[in-house]
Amino acid sequence: MAITFGSRLKNAWNAFRDRNDTYEIEQSRGQYEASFNYRPDKLRMRYSNERSIINSIFNRLAVDVSQLDIRHVKVDRDNNDRFVGVVNSYLNECLSVEANLDQSARALVRDICISMFDEGTVAVVPTAATEDPRRTKSYDIGALRVAKIITWKPHHVKCRLYNEDTGREEDRLYPKSMVSIIENPFYSIMNEPNSILKRLIRKMNILDAIDEQSGSGKLDLIIQLPYVIKSEARRQQAEMRRKDIESQLAGSKYGIAYTDGTERITQLNRPAENNLQKQIEYLTQLLYSQLGITQGIMEGSASEQEYENYYARTIEPIISAIIDEFRRKWLTKTARTQGQDIRYFRDPFKLIPASKVAENADKLIRNEVLTKNEFRAIIGYKPSDDPSADELSNPNLNKSGDTSTPNNKEKESESTEAEKS
Hints:
The protein is of the alpha+beta class. It has helices at 5-11, 20-30, 52-66, 90-96, 105-119, 187-190, 196-214, 232-251, 276-291, 295-299, 304-330, 333-337, 357-366, 372-378, 406-420; strands at residues 69-76, 82-86, 121-129, 141-152, 156-163, 168-175, 180-183, 221-224, 264-267, 340-345.
């Protein structure tokens, strides 16, 4: 049946004009649900780590790790664990699309990384499954949450995680066999009490304290009076003189006060020279080198070789720690024997400039690594209708049964024309 203009108006819906849903929700559940002015499910960093350079390093690493695609896959165990395809499971849906009600798959990975860098160890808890994970190992995971580990026990851990049904954080005890406990591979650099990162944080705290002290508005003046202050009467007289100068400065529009000609005023709040800034710069460069980061990585101006070293030395250990724990806790030995696995995939074309796209396309298609349509999908073009675009073959070589080449065809045409003449 054709959709008329009247039926479109009858079935139309506008989110700002329809107040029935809002009214019903407020009447039925609003008085029982918790509400917040900020996002309650988001794990926040400790105050000592919320510094400019520390937060930027954590965020850069977390964003780069989340750009890798994590999938629940099928591999061929008989052929060196060759990738066969993606498994259509709820776990793969959590790792690729939606991790829970509040987070996408990439938001979950960013949350894991930042929490792991901040705490040193983080837990990823299945909050929904087809079966009870505490009673059986044959279950499929439907939702995942990042949790903070509160208490360690021999076979259990107490985790603090967000409950999406109540809207509050709750402490729950879970067996270690069902919870992925991920430890920061750079724990000795980031989380040890005497690590480079902790030393850098302490130095930056000292620098912030000095800045706050110098910018607090105090004048730090010493007033030298023209008489000796030894008796109690002289001390009271000096105290009255100090209060008089304070009241003059506080009550003056431009902060001007007057003194006697015999009094001398010495100001102490001149910046003292120290090597604190140089120590912070040295520790920052040392932290960069130990994490495999360069200034070009943070600015986005690094070379291709720098990016390759960065992904090999920094990103790969982090994503491998996450993948290994997922595989160990959520894939049984039977599933691994059957060829199930959890792997990550990196798009190698993200770092290729536009000027080299055609060159790389020619090499990959000519060496029969990708088909034409597969490469068109990578750069965002629709597939071609040409049947040969889906064939894994070298376009520069002749197909079987076709011995003619463009030069041979020209020679054949010339010979036929000569015979006719």
